[in-house]
Amino acid sequence: MIALATFRSALRVLAVVVIGLLAVGSASAGSDYLRLGAGDMAQSRAVRLGINKSMVIELPRPAGDVLVSNPAIADAVLRTSQRLYLIGVKLGQANIFLFDNTGAQIASFDVYVEADLGALNRLLSEAITDGWVKAEAMNGNIVLRGEVASASSSSRAQEITVGMLQGQSLGTNEGATGDQTVEKKVVNLLTITGVEQVSLKVTIAEVQRSVVKQLGIDTQAFLAKGNIAFGLANSQTGSFDSQVGQAALGWANGDNSVTATVKALEETNLIKTLAEPTLTAVSGETASFLAGGEFPFVTGIDQDTGIVTVDFKPFGVQLAFTPVVLSAGRISLKVRTEVSEIDSVAASGAPTLSSRRAETTVELPSGGAFVIGGLIQESTRRAVSGLPVIQKIPVLGALFSSKDFQRDETELVMIVTPYLVKPTSPSKLARPSDGLVYANDAEAIFLGQINKIYGSVKNQRPAAYHGQLGFAFD
């Protein structure tokens, strides 16, 4: 019993000694007062301060001089010979040495100036409602840990952290400004638990309608007398379509003849362009799509070597979008879509493009759609050609003139629908060739069919079981 009591007493003494050493060995950011004893001068002490926070240190004997390694990080003021004030100025580390009047060292401190993480964590808990975020100090950096439901919450947490530290340098990098240094020193390790993939379905519908009308008599008339022919010709510079219906009129009497050409055409064209590209991208990344081609064009020629530099220009249906998942069901979407085709008009020998494009940024829920419309183009062209003076004579002038009329109308509509998506099983996906069965010779010849079935394959329900079911036991 005596040995057990002696052992317990020794443990109590050891615990008291350890607690005392920990109390005088370091001061946390939450403590604002420290008293040093006569035997505490041999070792350096770690002192942690918040920005614009202070600490009072009582010295064991009078001090005559103080040395601060980096006054931009921490400041030390001797109010009396035995009372020292430490003030945290900027995030970082510094050393402080105290000397008496004889130059002997009294004490030394390793000062760590850190952010006020308590206030930061309280602000983060109030601002982030779809998860939890905790800010920690690590080697002069601010580390954000936790889980949030969306990328917007992660960005908001980082912006709040940077905002609290704005204008305060986290290091001694003189080449960077305070704001840039703060952004580099905030490490975002937040985990996003929500859906971060967006599938975009775009329907691009374009209708082109053109009407062409031509009516008149071509003034290219010829008069023949035996083997000698005379003509009145008109180059038809005002005409914009030479592929027209033509009929020749003439009169002949022996070796004498007169001929003329009558042009008559009425044409209506309707062109429909439809594309439905579907793309999937991670939040914050850009996905692009092109259904068309590329044509080369010369961009430069080396005068010394004669080497020609060629670049390629894409044309067709183009789509590019960048989604950002803001929260559950809310998507910020930047869309750029373009429909282009090679124009018949060339510039400096290189073809040109006729383009219709739209670019916008919208915010909408998953499954919501918006329409980009109003891309309407209309052009009307008229041309009248004939013989000078004669074509202006009433009634008679119509026999020596030709009138051309063309009208083009184009309307483009784009429907954009984003969806929040998750990966699926390959068994739920189908190919365009699934369900395709080619027709046999008889069906192709007599019925005019080229295939039997073409379309989506519907999953059939499994047949019901009949008879006795269960397990057999011996």
UniProtKB/TrEMBL annotation:
InterPro entries from the entry?
A: Bact_Secretion_Sys_Channel (IPR050810), GspD/PilQ (IPR001775), T2SS-T3SS_pil_N (IPR032789), T2SS/T3SS_dom (IPR004846)
A GO-annotated cellular component? type II protein secretion system complex
The protein's superkingdom reads: Bacteria
Residue ranges annotated for the Pilus formation protein N-terminal domain, each copy included: 44-113
Which Pfam families does UniProt cross-reference here?
Secretin, T2SS-T3SS_pil_N
| Example GO BP | protein secretion
Type II/III secretion system secretin-like domain boundaries: 264-422
What the record says about family reads: Belongs to the bacterial secretin family.
UniProt-recorded name of the protein: Type II and III secretion system protein family protein
Taxonomic classification:
Bacteria, Pseudomonadati, Pseudomonadota, Alphaproteobacteria, Hyphomicrobiales
